[in-house]
Every structure is written in structure tokens, then in C-alpha cells.
Design brief:
5 strands, single chain, 208 residues, alpha/beta, Ribosomal Protein L15, Chain: K, domain 2, 9% strand, 27% helix, two-stranded parallel ribbon, 3-stranded parallel β-sheet
Length: 208
């Protein structure tokens, strides 16, 4: 075996299709693109364009929305709990939580918590801790002698601000009141100046 005698297995490499080599090849003219102009070029994606007319996806009405803050609860009926107790998978003497329900195979995933519903019949006395429960489910558990503890929702975290809090501006000192003696002196000086002006006006009138 020599290096110059090495070759691939027959059929391992296939020659690329040479397009635009005449109509007899089947890949002539538009070379498989089937269009002229803009659509025959690479990198063109005209999504929903209808020649300037309002596209269909904009003409149709928009309804509903997706709540990004929605919680996903796993529904469990009281009858399902009784079935698990009868099968020996749940202990009626211990507190039933989402973790114990998952370990017993009653639920597959916890998600955001368990919500208890009232379908079925419950005979065992249970203490159940869940994220939510219907009124009928609570009544069914209490009728059997048990109790339902609804866990409080976690408070939303306050948004942290990168900007430091502005310091409070100090109060400006109040201006000191002028003493009464200064006010009286200023009033007297004003009156004297006014009297002098009036006297000058009279003298000028008499001179004329």
C-alpha cells in the first residue's frame, strides 16, 4: 500500500451539481431557482409581502396575550389522595406536601405548587399543605376530620436600582428679622427725602 494509491470508497464522494450548463442538463436557464429578478438572488426572504397591500397577518384581529407572570399549578383531586392511601403509597398520619405527593407518584412534577380539587371522596383524616385549594376541597377534607394549610405566596422581589439614593438637601437658614428700630429709621429718612423733593417742586413753581 502506497500513499498515492489511497482512495475513498466508491460512492463516498459525489460531484456537485453543475448548474447553468444548458437546458439539456435540466439545470439550465434559472439553474433550479425557477424565478427571475429578486427571488432568483440569494439572501432574499419576502415574508408576508403582498405587493404593498396590507398583509394577511396584519389584517387579522389580535386576541389574548400570554401572561409571563402566570403560575403553573398541578391539580390533585381528593379522590386521588384516597386511592394513594389505599394503595399504601401515602401515610395518612404524616403531613401531605408536594414533595410527598411526588415521591408517592401522585404527581410527576411540582412546578409552582399543588392545587387541591374536590373530585372524588376522601375518607382518611389528612393534614395537607398545598399552594391552593378550592372551597369544596377544603370542605371535603374538613368533613373527613383533616385540615388544609394553604401556603402563602412568595412576595415579589423589589427591583434593585443601580443609582445611589440622592442625599437630602439641607434646609436653608431663615433670614433674621430686622429690628424694629432700623425700620423706623428707614421710614423717617424716606419721609424727609420726600419732603425735600416737595419743597423743591414748590420753589420751582413760584420762580416761574
Amino acid at each position: 500500500m502506497r500513499l498515492n494509491e489511497l482512495s475513498d470508497i466508491k460512492g463516498a464522494r459525489k460531484a456537485r451539481q453543475r448548474v447553468g450548463r444548458g437546458i439539456g442538463s435540466g439545470w439550465g436557464k434559472t439553474s433550479g431557482r425557477g424565478q427571475k429578478g429578486q427571488k432568483s438572488r440569494s439572501g432574499v426572504a419576502i415574508k408576508g409581502f403582498e405587493g404593498g397591500q396590507m398583509p394577511l397577518h396584519q389584517r387579522l384581529p389580535k386576541r389574548g396575550f400570554k401572561n409571563i407572570f402566570a403560575k403553573r399549578y398541578v391539580a390533585v383531586n381528593v379522590g386521588r389522595l384516597q386511592t394513594a392511601i389505599d394503595a399504601g403509597k401515602l401515610d395518612s398520619k404524616s403531613t401531605v406536601t408536594a414533595t410527598t405527593l411526588k415521591e408517592a407518584g401522585v404527581i410527576r412534577r411540582v412546578h409552582d405548587g399543588v392545587r387541591l380539587l374536590a373530585k372524588g371522596e376522601l375518607k382518611a383524616k389528612l393534614t395537607i399543605e398545598v399552594a391552593g385549594a378550592s372551597k369544596a376541597a377544603v370542605a371535603a377534607v374538613e368533613k373527613a376530620g383533616g385540615s388544609v394549610v394553604v401556603q402563602a405566596a412568595k412576595p415579589a422581589k423589589a427591583a434593585k436600582s443601580d443609582k445611589p439614593a440622592k442625599a437630602a438637601k439641607p434646609d436653608k437658614p431663615a433670614r433674621a428679622a430686622k429690628p424694629a428700630a432700623e425700620d423706623e429709621t428707614q421710614d423717617k429718612a424716606r419721609d424727609e427725602a420726600q419732603a425735600v423733593d416737595e419743597g423743591q417742586d414748590k420753589d420751582e413753581g413760584s420762580a416761574e
